Amino acid sequence: MSVSDLSVSEPFYTKLFGTGPAMTLSDGPFQRRVFALSDGQLFGLTQHEAVRSGDRFDPSRVGLDHVGFGCSDPDAVAAWRDHLDAAGIEHSGIVEADYGLALSVKDPDGNALEFFMLAG
């Protein structure tokens, strides 16, 4: 995930995931922090040297719409809601739709994240 300022995004994601980065990389024209998530997935944040000033995420542009994290059941979605509340991170609340349950969050750059459980 490209971010504009790691000094702002890293603390947000540390709060979100409840753990700090497992790796720091700086072997290119960028700085990167990689989080090792509890399910074995890796999630990376990258601040490129050539950041466009004032640029913000927009899901209507070609590219990323949002990042979704699957939850196994309604209790797992509720656990994320409770964690976000405890961490002081604003969110959408749990939304019920015909496809399942969704809980949405935006990071400091406006990047959209969703914790969801598919119906059925």
UniProtKB/TrEMBL annotation:
A family per Pfam: Glyoxalase
Domain spans labelled VOC: 1-118
Domain of life according to the entry: Bacteria
Gene3D superfamilies, per the entry: 2,3-Dihydroxybiphenyl 1,2-Dioxygenase, domain 1
InterPro entries: Glyas_Bleomycin-R_OHBP_Dase, Glyas_Fos-R_dOase_dom, VOC_core
Record's protein name: VOC family protein
Annotated organism of origin: Actinomycetospora endophytica
Taxon lineage: Bacteria, Bacillati, Actinomycetota, Actinomycetes, Pseudonocardiales
